[in-house]
Amino acid sequence: MAVIEQLTQDFLRTKKLPHIWCPGCGNGIVTAALVRAIERSGYDQKDVVIVSGIGCSSRAAGYLNFNTLHTTHGRALAFATGLKMARPELKLFVIMGDGDCSAIGGNHFIHSARRNIDLNAVIVNNHIYGMTGGQHSPLTPTGKKATTAPRGTLERPFDLLELARGAGATFGAKGIAAQPRQLEQLILRGANHRGFSVVEALSPCPIAYGRRNKLGGAVEMLRDMKENSISVERAANMEETELVDKTITGVLFSIDAPEYAEEYYRSIGKEIG
Amino acid sequence: MPETKPVLMQGNEACAVGAISAGVRFYAGYPITPSTEVAEQMAARLPDIGGVFIQMEDEIASMAAVIGASIGGMRTLTATSGPGFSLKQENLGYAIMAEIPCVVVNVQRMGPSTGVPTAPAQGDVMQARWGTHGDHPIIVFSPASVYETYYLTIAAVNLSQKLRQPVILLLDEVIGHMREKVEIPEAGKLIVEKSSDKVPSDWKPYDEKGLTPLVPFGFGHYYHVTGLFHDQYGFPTGDPPQVERALDRLHNKLEKYRDEIVLTNYIGHKEPRVAIVTYGCVVRSARAVVKKAYWQNRLPVGLLSLQTIWPFPDREIEALAKQVDVILVPEMNRGQLVGEVERYARGEAKVIPVNRYDGEMISPDQISEALGRWLS
Ligand code: SF4
C-alpha cells in the first residue's frame, strides 16, 4: 500500500484528477499499468518522456508527472522520433489509440518500426474512435457497429502486431485491461527492449463501442476479454481450431536488431548521454 | 570585422550554411523539388559537426520531428516546396500554439497542386500567412539574393529562438537555384544570439507575465506541451478568459518585437512620385529598373523591398503612400500582397498590380513599361 501511495505522489499529477474518462473506461487501467512499469524500470523521473497523440487514451499524458508531450492526431511517433534523435538518452513512452496509431498515424507507425528506433509504443485498442463518439477504426472487428458503420463494418481489421512485425518492429506484445499485472509486465519488457517496441493493450470502451454492440457494461466487457484470451505459452500447446477468435496475450515476438538512434550516433562518432 | 572570403553559392546552399552558422543541429525533411538541395547540404554537413539529419517518411512527419527535436533543445530547420508546404501546415500550427521554435523553408514553385515543379512563382504568400487553421500570428521572410538568404536564415533561427515562434523562410525557385558570388563570415563561425540561459526557480513554460526561454525536456521541469489551449503550466483549458489571454499572448509577443521582425529596405529618389514595392526574386528586376530610372535618368522613382512580408510592413507602406502618387506591386502571382499594400496605402496613393504567372520570372522590361505609364 505504502508503495502505491508513493508512486501516486511522484508520477501522477494528482491536481489534474479526476480524469475526463467515462465510468468503466479501460484507459485508467492501462495508464496505471504504464505508471507501475515505469516505476519498476528504475528510470530517473527526469529521463522519462510521455508522448501521446489525440484521442481518449492520449489524454493520459496530462495526468502523468513527467515531461509530457500531447501532439497532433496520429503524429505522436513522428514527434517522438525527432525528440529521441535529439536526445537519445531519454526514455520515451508513446501512448496512442487504435485509430490514432493505425489510421491517420499508420505511416509513422510502420516507419518507426522499420527504423527500429528505441521508442516504447503503448497502443490502447478499444476498437473504436471514442472521443468523437464511436466511429469505426482500422482495428474494429468486421461486422461490429459504429456510428459510421450503423449496419456493421464491412472492412477487415489490421492485425496490429503482425503489421508491426512485418514493418520491422523488434518487440511486440499484447495485453488486456482485464489482466493489469500482465500488462504492466509487458510494458516493462517493452521498455527494457532496445529498439522499437509495441505493446497493444485491449481496453473496454463501454460507452462508444460496448453499448452499440450490445457487449454489456465494463464488467461484462472485462469478463469476456479475460475469457477470450489465452497466454502465448498456453496457446503454443493448443490446436489452431481451439484458438479461433481468441486473443493471444504475452510477448509475441522479441528480436535483436540494430537500433536507429544508437547506430546514427555511432556513425557520427558521438557518445550518447 | 569578421574575415570574409567570396564564394560561389546557390540560394538553397546559402540557406543550409546560414542555418548551421545560426546553430541549427537538427534537420528533418522529405525530398521535393526545388528545395531538395537544402536537405542534401544538411545531410552532407550535419554529421561532421555532431548534428542530426533524418529523412522522414513524409512532410508531416518531418515537421513533427523538427518540433520534437526543438523540445529536446536543438535548433531545428526543415525545408520543402509547394505541396510539401501544404502538408507542413498541420504541425506548423502546433508549433505556433505550443510556442516551439523552428524554421520552415518553403522554396516556392508554380502551383496550384503539382503545378510546374521546376518553375518559379510567388503563389504561396497568402498560404504562408494563413495556411494553418486558426487565428494565428506568423513571421515570414522573403530573401532576394543568395546573401540575403544566408543572413535571413540566421535571423530566422535567432528570432525563432527568442520569440519561441516558428519562422518561415519563403524562398522562390529563382533564389533557391541561383548561383551568386557571396561573401560570408569565415566558415564555421557561429552567429548565435543566446537567449538568457538562466532558469529561474519559478520558471513556467507559458508564464502569464511574459515570454520565458524554453527549458528542454529531460532537465527535471515536468511541464506539459499540447496543441490545446493551455494555462501557464501548459495544461489544457477551455476557460473563455484564459483562452482569450492565451491567443493574445501569441500575437502580443510579435507586436512587442515588431521592429526587430519587420525588415524593409528603400533605395532610390528622396522624394519619389512612383514607388515599387516588392519582395523575393522580383526585387532583382525592380532594382534593375530603379537603377536605370533613378541613377541614370534621375527620375523620381524608388524601390521598397520587403525582406519581411508577414507581419506585413504596415507602417512602412503607410509612410510611403503619403509620399508618392503611385505604388507598383510586381508579383509572380495573380496579385496577393498587393491587397495588403492597398489596405495600408489607405487611399493616399494609387496601388497598381503588375503580375506574371506563366512560370517565368518578371522581367525589368515588364516593370519598366508599367513605370513609364505612370510616370508620364
Ligand atoms: S468514450 Fe470510450 S474510450 Fe473514451 S473515455 Fe469514454 S469509455 Fe473511455
Main attributes of the structure:
heterodimer, A: 273 residues, alpha/beta, Rossmann fold, eight-stranded mixed β-sheet, two-stranded antiparallel ribbon, 11 helices, B: 376 residues, 2 domains, seven-stranded mixed β-sheet, 15 strands, globular, binds iron/sulfur cluster
Molecular structure report:
- With 273 residues, chain A is an alpha/beta fold.
- Chain A has helices at 2-11, 27-41, 76-86, 98-104, 106-115, 160-167, 180-192, 206-210, 218-227, 232-235, 260-267, and strands at 48-52, 67-70, 91-97, 120-125, 128-129, 135-136, 171-176, 197-202, 229-231, 247-254.
- By secondary structure, chain B is α/β, with parallel strands linked by helices.
- In chain B, the strands form three sheets. Chain B has a seven-stranded mixed β-sheet, sandwiched between helices. In chain B, strands 10-12-11-14-15 form a five-stranded mixed β-sheet, with helices on both faces. In chain B, strands 1-8 form a two-stranded antiparallel sheet.
- In chain B, helix 10 (282-296) links the parallel strand 11 (274-278) and strand 12.
- Chain B is globular.
- The model of chain B has no long low-confidence stretch (mean pLDDT 95).
- Strand 2 (67-70) of chain A pairs parallel with strand 9 of chain B, so a sheet runs across the interface.
- Iron/sulfur cluster binds next to helix 8 of chain A.
In brief:
The complex is a heterodimer of chains A (273) and B (376). By secondary structure, chain A is of the alpha/beta class. Chain A is 37% helix and 18% strand.
| Largest sheet, spatial ordering of strands of chain A | 2-1-3-4-8-7-10-9
CATH C-level category of chain A: Alpha Beta
**What kind of sheet is the major sheet of chain B?**
7 strands, mixed
Averaged pLDDT of chain A, please?
96
> Mean of residue pLDDT of chain B?
95
Order of helices and strands of chain B: EHEHEHEHEHEHEHEEHHEEHEEHEHEH
How many whole angstroms does the radius of gyration of chain B measure? 21 Å
Could you say what the CATH topology of the largest domain in chain B is called?
A: Rossmann fold
Shape of chain A: globular
Radius of gyration of chain A: 18 Å
Counting DSSP H or I runs of 4 or more residues, the number of helices of chain A is 11
